[in-house]
């Protein structure tokens, strides 16, 4: 039987990224990258870009990127696909948790 890997988010140490922003790496192996990111109300993840596509799934709260749909807020269940090289700036007026995945 294959070994099932898991992470219990309630029992892990979240890494600070910036003021009011923290991340929990769920998987960073085999060329895969899966990360939970929490952004506090009124805070932002530092502006950045990736050499690979970046995908965002909003789990809770409200997510916005000033470069997407003129800063439209996206709620739970929303999915965003950023093509490789796209500069993005994750923000939240109310706070949010997002799942981000990409390849290395």
Provide structural commentary:
This protein has 104 residues and is mostly beta strands. It has a domain at 13-21 and 32-48 and 70-104. 0% of the residues lie in helices and 47% in strands. The protein contains no helices and ten strands. The chain has strands at 15-18, 21-29, 32-39, 43-44, 54-61, 63-64, 73-74, 79-82, 91-92, 96-103. It has a six-stranded antiparallel sheet with strand order 1-2-3-10-5-8, with no helix packed on it. A hairpin with a 2-residue loop joins strand 2 (21-29) and strand 3.
Report strand %.
over 45%
Helix content bin:
under 10%
Q: Whole-number average pLDDT?
A: 92
Largest sheet: 6 strands, antiparallel
**How are the strands of the largest sheet arranged?**
1-2-3-10-5-8
Radius of gyration: 14 Å
- SS-derived structural category: mainly beta
Low-pLDDT parts are none
| Element pattern in H and E | EEEEEEEEEE
- Number of E-type strands: 10
- Coarse shape: globular
Q: Could you give a quick summary of the protein structure above?
A:
This protein has no helices and ten strands. By secondary structure, it is mainly beta.
Descriptors:
104 residues; mainly beta; 6-stranded antiparallel sheet; 10 strands; 47% strand
